[in-house]
Amino acid sequence: MHNNQPNESQKLILAEKGTRFGHNIIDTIGFYFIVFLHAMVLDEWLGIIPEGGSDWFVFYFFFLYVMYHALFEHFFGKTPGKFITKTKVVKNDGSKPSFMNILGRNTARLIPFDPLSFLFSDRGWHDQISNTYVIVDKKKE
């Protein structure tokens, strides 16, 4: 039987919507900082962004967006925003998700209106699709 709820024996505490909104704001700022640095290097130093932009830059932007979240969550279980809000990403049994699971989770963030899915549920579509949870990290840092 497939269980989509956190394992009760682990006593996982789901992160509140306000906390998730907070780490989303922090991660958005961090992500745009990385995009700014990449754009500066690609344009100013290498001169490879044509005047008026390019279609490939849109795809590159989405790639960076997915990889920003996926790499942090894979290696640390959390993004910089989740470090600050003391939350982390886990599977329903409290274990660390695989890289493919994390990659799927963060690719699902590109679904239009994914942020609005929090209006109807405690978990966004990207959480539900990947069967992951954002929980309070009780570990002492």
Automatic annotation (TrEMBL):
Xref: InterPro entries: Pra-immunoreactive, RDD
Listed transmembrane segments: 21-41, 56-76
Compartments where found: Cell membrane
Source taxon at top rank: Bacteria
UniProt keyword annotation of Oxidoreductase present: no
Membrane topology recorded in Swiss-Prot or TrEMBL: Multi-pass membrane protein
Residues annotated as domain RDD: 18-120
Keyword Cell membrane found: yes
Any Pfam family: RDD
Alphabetical UniProt keywords: Cell membrane, Membrane, Transmembrane, Transmembrane helix
Protein name stated in the entry: RDD family membrane protein YckC
Organism name: Meridianimaribacter flavus
